[in-house]
Amino acid sequence: MDDKLLNNRYKLIEQIGTGGMANVYKGKDTYLGRTIAIKMLKTNSDKKKELINRFKKEAQSIAALSHPNIVSIYDIGKEENIDYFIMEYIDGMSLKEKIEKEKVLKWEECITIISCICQALEYAHKKNIMHRDIKPHNILITSDNIAKVADFGLAKFTTAANSLTQTGTIMGSAQYMSPEQIESTTLDERCDIYSLGITFYEMFTGHLPFNGNNLVSIIIKQKNELPIEPYEINKEIPQSVNNIIMKMLEKDPDKRYQTMPELISDIDLASKNINYDIPKTFSIDMINKKHKENNIKEKVKTINKKDPDLKIKINLIIYHKIL
After folding, report:
1. Are residues 265 and 182 in the same domain?
2. Has 133 been annotated as catalytic?
3. CATH number, position 57
4. CATH code where residue 311 lies
5. What whole-number distance in Å separates Cα of residue 272 and Cα of residue 276?
6. Are residues 38 and 24 in contact, defined by beta-carbon separation less than 8 angstroms?
């Protein structure tokens, strides 16, 4: 494959990333002479039909978007049973890599990055597309420190007539998904706001607000527990920014920011005046919600024996009964 040109045009140089659905390569467009990224669907999956549908959906979602803070798609094709699409190459690193390298980002830099992401998501939402998998891994930071949203593999048009999430299935990464995604209910753009809140939290603290040894423990925390306030971990976080994050992480989507413009407005106010009083509306009733831990452990014991690295699907029948 290294010596062959896809579509007699695209040359693979080196692999630069991999995921559950596809591998990503640095490449060269021999027609235009520019460096590109080539995303190629994995061919050895036993769920190839499902992955092809997701792969095409991602290409269609990105193709509908043209924004400086969204990774562009240039072409899509298939050759010798290999599905691929050609994307903008980002000379930089993922936000996750940046967090792992720097541990805690300065609040001014966080504001700059989060503003870029907000602008991208505002644009996508106006196009009736929600991302549904916002996390630092899917945010690319250029060498000029510009943030670009990538990986629309779970994106969904909000105007679709069908249910957005199949009952009994969760889609995305548990540490970053909203409570309504866990419940497999009909979703809207507010699920992106929640996931962005988790990302914002991690940028400021170097920690995830909800983590655990397996998927079940994470989703229980995600659905029912309050996070430690970011300010308690990093005292340099302005109170205004702390309150923005906490409002983004409201369990009840009706108490969250309702739209990206609403969130952008508060971020802009905080960036201009760190002492700006942004009310924190985190639900006090969540504090009083308790679990019967022994009962939960018994009922999820069989689930815990399964693969702890399962990231995409899990039968939630038992989970819904215990909550």
Report:
1. yes
2. yes
3. 3.30.200.20
4. 1.10.510.10
5. 8
6. yes
